[in-house]
Amino acid sequence: MKLLADKVALVTGGSQGLGEAHVRKLHEDGAKVIITDVLVDNGEKLAKELGDNATFVKLDVTDPDAWDAAIEHGENTFGPIDILVNNAGIDIMKPFIEFTGADLQKLLDVNLFGNFYGMQKILPSMKKAGGGSIVNISSLEGLRGTAGNSIYNASKFAATGLTKAVAQEYAEYNIRVNSVHPGAIQTPGVEADDIKDTVQNYIQNIPMKRIGKPEEVAKMVAFLASDNSSYSTGAEFIVDGGIMAT
Ligand code: NAP
Question: The pTM is what?
Answer without folding.
Answer: 0.97
